[in-house]
Amino acid sequence: MTADSDTARSSRPRIPVTLVTGFLGSGKTTLINAALRAPGMERTIVVVNEFGEVGIDHQLVASSNDSVVVLENGCLCCTVRSDLVATLNALYHDRAAGRIPAFENVVIETSGLAEPAPVLQAFLSEPTLDGLYRVSSVVTLVDAVNYGHTLERHDEALRQIALADQIRLTKLDLVGPSVSDTEVSLRSSIARLNRTAEVHAIDWSAEALAALLTAPGFDHADPSADPRPWLGVATAEPSLHDEHDDHSHSHHEHDHEPLYHLRGKNIESFVLVRTVPLSRNELQFLLDGISHNLGPNLLRVKGLVSIADEPGRPAVIQGVQHLLHTMTWLEKWPDADQRTRIVFITQGIASVDLRDMIGLLDRVSTRTFKVRERGSLSAGR
C-alpha cells in the first residue's frame, strides 16, 4: 500500500475498537456489566464472548437497545473469529443504513482463556475490517490475588499482558493490609513482560470505565496522530538505549538493549535504536527476516522508523506475531528525536539471539543493497 492510499483511507475515520482481555476471574464480566450502565457508553457497541465464563447480565442486554452482541459458539480467538468479522461488517453497514443507532465505538470482550493475538491479527489482515475499524487499545485486567499462580501455570495470561496497551489491577482490596506493597510488586513484575503498557489500579467509577473503554488511542493511519504514548518506553525512557558514537562501524551501526526478562517464562522486551536512516528496501528486508525467523515467538512489534528518502516524516510499523501491517506514515516527527525506535516483545527468543539475528540480517542487507547501488551507478555511466 502506498503512502497516498494511506492518506486517502485516513480521510475516512475508522471506528475505534477496544479489546478487553484478562484471565479467568480477573473481572472482565464485572467490568462489562458496569460499563453497560455508564453514561458515557451510549454510543458504544459491546461484543461479548461467553465461552467458558459466567455470562453478562441478560437483563442489561435486554434493555440495551441492541448495543450488545453475544457470540456464544466458541472461543473468540479461533472458532468464531469468522463470526466476529461478519458481525463487525454487518454492524457497520447497518449503522450506515440507519437500521441501528450510529455507534462511535466498539468494545470486544474475549474469553479468559483466549489469547488476544488472533483477534488483533484479524484487524491487521482482513481488508474490510482494516478499512472500517481500528484497534485503539488492548485493555488487560490482572487479578492481584491470583496473579503469581496464574502466570506460573498459564502462558495465555502472560501473552494477554505482553500484548496490552492498558493494564488494570483488580481485587487489590482483597490482598490484605499490604495493598501498596502488592501494587508496587505487581507493577515491577508486569514491567518485565510489557514495559510500554500503562498500569493502574482499576477505577470502577462510571466515568473512568467509559473513558477507558472509549479512548481514541493512536491511529497509525492518521498522519497527524501522536505516537509517543503508544510507543511507550522507546520515547519515554531513551536512557535505556545507549548510543555509541563509534564512526568506525558500518552504515548500519545500531544498539539493542534488553529491558526485562521474566525468569522461566522467556518473555522479553527489546528496543532497536538507530541513528542512521534506513532505505525502504533495507527496512523491508529487516522486517521480513525477523518475521520469517521468529514467527509466533514475536508477540508484538511496533515502532517509528527513519527512512532515508523521507527525511521529514517517520514510517509507522506494527505487527502481531508473524503478521506485519502495511507501513503507514506520519506528517512529521512528534519531537526532536528522529532516531528509529522499534519495540519487540518476544517469547522463547533470548535478547542476545535476537541481537545476533538482526546483526546477520544487517550484514546481508548491506551486501545486497550496496552491491545493487554500485551496479546501478556503473550501468549509468
Task: Write a concise synopsis of the structure shown.
By secondary structure, this protein is α/β, with parallel strands linked by helices. Helix content is 38%, strand content 22%.
Which helices and strands appear, and what pairs or packs with what?
Elements (H helix, E strand, L loop, with lengths): L2 H8 L4 E8 L5 H9 L7 E6 L8 H5 L5 E4 L9 H17 L7 E5 L7 H9 L1 H6 E11 L3 H7 L1 H8 L3 E5 L8 H15 L4 E4 L4 H8 L14 H4 L1 H4 L17 E8 L5 E8 L5 H15 L3 E8 L9 E6 L2 E2 L3 E2 L10 E8 L3 H29 L2
Parallel strand pairs: 1-4, 1-5, 2-3, 2-4, 5-6, 6-7
Antiparallel strand pairs: 8-9, 9-14, 10-11, 10-14, 11-12, 11-13
Helices and strands, in N-to-C order?
A: HEHEHEHEHHEHHEHEHHHEEHEEEEEH
How many runs of DSSP E, i.e. beta strands?
14
Largest sheet: 7 strands, parallel
Distinct helical segment count: 14
The assigned CATH architecture of the largest domain is 3-Layer(aba) Sandwich
- Could you give the order of strands across the largest sheet? 3-2-4-1-5-6-7
Using the coordinates above, name the CATH class of the largest domain. Answer: Alpha Beta
